[in-house]
Write a structure and sequence with these properties.
The complex is a heterodimer of chains A (112) and B (114). Chain A has strands at 2-7, 10-14, 19-27, 32-38, 44-50, 56-58, 64-68, 73-78, 87-94, 101-102, 106-111. By secondary structure, chain A is an all-beta fold. With 114 residues, chain B is mainly β. Classes of the chains: A mainly beta (112), B mainly beta (114).
């Protein structure tokens, strides 16, 4: 079985502040992990993914995430938030033959 | 590549009418997914196909919903008869499983059932 939990349905940060969006997963086999972003009235687009190898993964727009097997986590971070980062972010896991399982999403608000 | 193409982008219909949503996946991708997104339930996987064969349709809400993939470049999601609670944004996504399972999403179809 596989599942994803995103802690915090809404996160608000100030422009220039650190962004931290939390994701914990459950998987009985080594997982592939993904972060997607959704801007208003658009589909989801991939920010970054972890498959194997280096546990610190860098993505687009300055985002990165670290796979921590011992903590079953894949938190998304960005050192300095920009107004354009305001969007909804989804963590997803794929394990074995199943399709991706998406978390419930975290809406990021960036205050000027 | 043009990405995943969905049509129509918006659909407004009356309760009881048949609705057909269309999707053209990215050329060369072997898996296709239909999702529904609402404020109340978030993003739900309805069905997915691998090599044009339905693999998991456990997310299809009820018999009013059906999906087909007659060939590698086209899929439809049909709702008959439609109900107001079917109002949502429906996304199609495709992936190339030989390249890490990343799903590419279309722009979605916003369905409103009156």
């Amino acid at each position: 079985a596989q599942s994803v939990t995103q802690l915090g349905s809404h996160v608000s940060v100030s422009e220039g502040a650190l962004v931290l969006l939390r994701c914990n997963y459950s998987s009985s086999v080594p997982p592939y992990l993904f972060w997607y972003v959704q801007y208003p009235n658009q589909g989801l687009q991939l920010l970054l993914k972890y498959t194997t190898g280096a546990t610190l993964v860098k993505g687009i727009n300055g985002f990165e995430a670290e796979f921590k097997k011992s903590e079953t986590s894949f938190h998304l971070t960005k050192p300095s938030a920009h107004m354009s980062d305001a969007a909804e972010y989804f963590c997803a896991v794929k394990a074995g033959r199943r399709a991706l399982t998406f978390g419930s999403g975290t809406r990021l608000q960036v205050q000027p | 590549d043009a990405g995943v193409i969905q049509s129509p982008r918006h659909e407004v219909t009356e309760m009881g009418q048949e609705v057909t949503l269309r999707c053209k996946p990215i050329s060369g991708h072997n898996s296709l997914f239909w999702y529904r997104q609402t404020m109340m339930r978030g993003l739900e996987l309805l069905i997915y196909f691998n090599n044009n064969v339905p693999i998991d349709d456990s997310g299809m809400p009820e018999d009013r919903f059906s999906a087909k993939m007659p060939n590698a470049s086209f899929s439809t999601l049909k709702i008959q008869p439609s109900e107001p609670r079917d109002s949502a944004v429906y996304f199609c996504a495709s992936s190339d499983d030989s390249r890490g399972y990343e799903q590419f999403f279309g722009p979605g179809t916003r369905l409103t059932v009156l």
